[in-house]
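User: Here's a chain of 434 residues. Predict its fold as tokens.
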Amino acid sequence: MKPYKYPEPLQDIERAINPWAQHTAETGAAGLDEKVAEIRALLAEKLAELRALPEDPALRAAEPDDLDAIRALRPDGERRYWTELPEATYRDRLAGAWLGRCAGNGLGAIVELWEIDKMEAWAEYLGEAFLPADYWSGAERPNDLQYQTSPRAAFTRSKMDGVPADDDLIYTQLGMLILEDYGPDFTVDDVGAAWVKYLPFSYVTAAFANLQKGLPALEAADVDNPTSFWIGASIRADPWGYAVAGYPELAAELSWRNAYGSNRRNGIYGGMYFASVIAAAFALGDPMAALEAGLNEIPADCVLARELRWALDVAGDIKDYREARMAADVRYAGMHPVHTINNAALTVWGLAIGGDDFSKVIGETVAMGLDNDCTAATAGSIFGAAYGLGAIPAHWTRNYNNKVYSYIIGIESFGLDDMIDRYTSLARNVLAGD
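Assistant: Prediction complete.
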């Protein structure tokens, strides 16, 4: 059963109105401005009515935004695996998680949101295999800057010198700064303040714009924000899993505080889920077991939980990226390509198909399309947290040269080893109760 029944898309309204308005102008017809103003007012009126339609009360009760209410609806399960930090194990798995995230993102960044056939055609044009087993040898529009910072060519294997900047990595950097600036008791308002302080721009557009206007972070997700169920919190989940490794309940709580300023309902739960999965992966050493464990930290009957259980149930029947994408397209027809739910299912299947082969995990996940730099980054992070750095083939990290670029205000780059040291210090202190 599909999770949502979407209406037919309304893009045809705009396509019909604008050409006819232009055509009418070219005929010299009188009254055009008044008629366009009338249409505009009518659309605004109907949009207001659309936004005011009442929610399904039963579904709303199953999908609260408040942390205590979310926790009351969780299934029973293990909340904490580690009470102290096994430092050598942690550092190896942290390095695997962080560099695995960088690699998954780096492979997907220059084909983000591409359809399968376009990626296959690009691989054929470059003369290389598809599935990708290494970074692409060439980038479309190589001189364009990704996030106003790194040229797209910097994501290719011959041009890479350090990890290029991307929003999927910026928030892992920013999460570390939030923990350092405010401590593990940081608030939703602290997250909002950090965004305004450190980010020159954000593609979590509505919430960020509201913060810049001075709206309190606790309210920023509720104003003119139809994307609050999308993937934003999921791509910001990793810092909390890294900082409280082995403690999925607290990882989910920290992710909730991070998510609340931009997301609601399943958008929040996506961040909580993946933060707890990553935290569990450090202790369990098994990505699939961690994916199961993460379900313990979100409401049992929310749509995301139901869809994750379905994705896990059918994972053994999905053999490759084509089958994965077909399953997602059928079940999630009409869902936006950067939604939390469809991308979460693809992340699950990438890990299931790839097993203990890192290259296959991120290659299959990227090949599925949708928001594939995000999904591959998350899959790479979970894989690395479970298996450690030694399970990641060296060719994925050989050109990192101990630096990851940043567009955080005032910071051009971070040392990869410095970030591992800093996260280790944070994890040590949190697990010690400091």
